[in-house]
Amino acid sequence: MNILAELRRRFATAIAALAPDSGELVELVLPSQDAKFGDYQANCAMPLGKKLGAPPRQIAERLIAALDVADLCEPPEIAGPGFINLRLRAEWLLTKLQVASADVERRGIELAAAPRTFVVDYSSPNVAKPMHVGHIRSTVIGDALCRVLKFLGHRVISDNHIGDWGTQFGMIIYGYKHFVDDAALAQAPVPELSRLYKLVNRLIEHEDQRDNQLPALRTKLAEQMERAQSLSAPPATGDEKADKQHAKKVRQAEAVVSELRTELAELEAKLAAFAADPEQSRLAKAHPRIGAAALAETAKLHAGDAENVALWRRFLPACLEEIDETYQMLGVTFDHALGESFYHDQLAGVVEKLQSQGIAVEDGGAVCVFLDGHEAPFIVRKKDGAFLYATTDLATIHYRLREWQPDAILYVVDHRQSLHFEQLFSTARKMGCGEMELVHVSFGTVLGEDGKPYKTRSGSAVGLKGLLDEAVERAYEIAAKSPQITSEDERRTAAKKIGIGAIKYADLAHNRTSDYVFSYDKMLAMNGNTAAYMQYSNARVKSIFARGEVNIAALRTSGAKIQFSAPAERALGLALLQFTEALARVASDYRPNHLTAYLFELASRYSEFFEQCPVLKAEDAALRDSRLLLCDLTARTIEQGLALLGIETVERM
RNA sequence: GCGCCCGUAGCUCAGUUGGAUAGAGCAACGGAUUUCUAAUCCGUUGGCCGCAGGUUCGAGUCCUGCCGGGCGCGCCA
User: Fold this and answer.
1) A374 CA vs B2 C1’ separation (Å)
2) A502 near A531, Cβ under 8 Å?
3) Number of domains in chain A
């Protein structure tokens, strides 16, 4: 039951009676922020008053007269400039709670009246490269969105657009041809391939740092120093504004120089450290221009070279296995994992189509799409003939359109790629993709406690597996503290659920559009808006049934009635009925933090209830049953809510 | 140079798309209780919502300009 939607339906009729073309004003029916203003409030009398040229309070009266809510609300009240405050009738709430309680399958949550088809594109790691902290948000947010949309009755197709056809594979092939340890490969392919990738990657990185980055940085530093120098002796113009702007430019130029200096020092230190390792320097000397060589292997693969294609076929399963291990740990699955390689034979066709439609033109040897509002073109074919991820993404849209006819494709990808998606979507629309909604579900960066992007001390990306392991390890301490858990086995299982849950919840609880600071201590805290707190709340609620030896499943369908004997019960009951609204919000703006906020709110309502209302020691059996049912519905809501976030619960904690 | 995003309590973050007196957790301080799991609950302190204008019944939210920060910008993904 979606109370808000129901109230809006009722108001739509009333508004139409006053002003036929003001349907959008139903959006101004909202949950009240303060209980003293009732449960919900309608704020449409003010704009309507303006439109109709009448005092808002008078409009409010006319709205109420035209409004048919007697079955669900107490008589509406007008307050302030014309707010209409609505308080739901207890009997009505109780009826709806009773329905939710008895509905074992879906606890009263209705399926979408108009189901849509969503393709959700998320996670998208590069095979060969170990997954790192940068993949966590996409994976976790995408998974949660899939679960919520599916639960609401939509058709959801999750597709992991893995990078299985790029340069990293060239590196592995190069590594295999020059550094392979055959015995190790035969025994355990995954670690050996991983070793090869890392080795080649490090050599290429070093080469790039030495031959490209270092000189470039030096040049840039010299330029900027010169610039700072030339700025530092300004002619005082007497114009205050111009002088201020000049001073700002000087400050900025100096800051840039100091930043570049630090950068240069760091780079030099890295190169020195590399040179100090005799084995590494030997390899670097033995493999000059390794970057170009790896690219050549990639090019051969793309060109269909028999040996490289065979190696690709041979190595890919092992690489996927490695990734799957992480997904298993996270409890994340996909309907499809159609990677870049799946589209490689469709790319030429995409470019041809763009050109024949006159959307793309050749420019400087490359095939480009020039778009309004963008200076830089969207390049779909390089001058050397190779295709880019822009090309693959367009081919992917075509394939999805043809194969699944989606109403929307969601790309759960970090915000730095927003320009790419703007261009991609514009180009796709030019090519024609109907009414389909294309959404970049963007998110911010995971930061360390210093406020900078989360990195290891040496400056490399933090491996995802290690990150998860550490969370589980730390969660073990929580499990070990529980007097409820007695077996080592249960402790281990609980630690996994608490640790993984903590990481996921911390991520999902933040507004995805902002960056957030990664902190084990905060995410594993037993207080506040964390998974551990929610899991603990749930375990505590459920412990009541065991202690009271209650067969709660039987009670649900026994016909026992829920009643409100105290304000805390009513407040809890109302919160329980608002679960649907939270889910609807998640689905409408693709933001799971609406659900975490709801769950935390629900847990607070439950705490107050639990404090004020004895359950097992209730005055009489009927009240005890009623409260048990409220407890049960709370636990089921928390469990269902966490499950929709991809988070498991524990029985004891 | 151009474009996008951000600035809310000491810290970490919400703020239902323009609604009433801006919220939560942590930290600090003060209370409660013979526990249904004290991993609790209640209260107090703490805010020029970066600054200045504007729009209107009403602005943390919208528009403009500044200040401060992040990110991106032709052949990487």
Assistant:
1) 9
2) yes
3) 3
Whether residues A173 and A292 fall in one domain: yes
pLDDT at residue A33 in the model: 86
Residues spanned by the domain of A548: 464-644
**What Å value separates CA A32 and C1' B45?**
27
* Chain segment A45-68, per-residue pLDDT in tens: 999 998 888 899 999 999 999 999
Q: Let me know if A70 is exposed, middle or buried by CB neighbors in 10 A (0-12, 13-18, 19+).
A: exposed
What is the predicted pLDDT for the residue at A237? 61
Residue A245's pLDDT is 67
Nucleotide nearest to A615 (CA to C1'): B36
> Do A201 and A302 share a domain, yes or no?
yes
Residue A587 maps to a domain: yes
The rounded distance, in Å, linking the Cα atoms of A168 and A200 is 9
CA distance A396 to A380: 13
Do residues A83 and A230 share a domain? Answer: no
Residue A574 lies in a domain: yes
Q: For chain A, how long is the longest CA-to-CA vector?
A: 88
Q: Please name the nucleotide lying closest to A627, CA to C1'.
A: B36
Nearest nucleotide from residue A298 CA, by C1' atom:
B76
Residue where one domain finishes, among candidates A294, A316, A338: A316
Of A88, A114, A136, which residue constitutes the final position of a domain?
Answer: A88
> Token pair 């369908």 is at which residue?
A557
Distance of CA A378 to the CA centre of its chain: 26
* Residue A157, beta-bridge partner list: A119
The predicted pLDDT at position A233 comes to 63
Residue stretches of chain A with pLDDT short of 50? none
3-state secondary structure of A62: helix
Q: How far is the CA of A88 from the C1' of B58 (A)?
A: 26
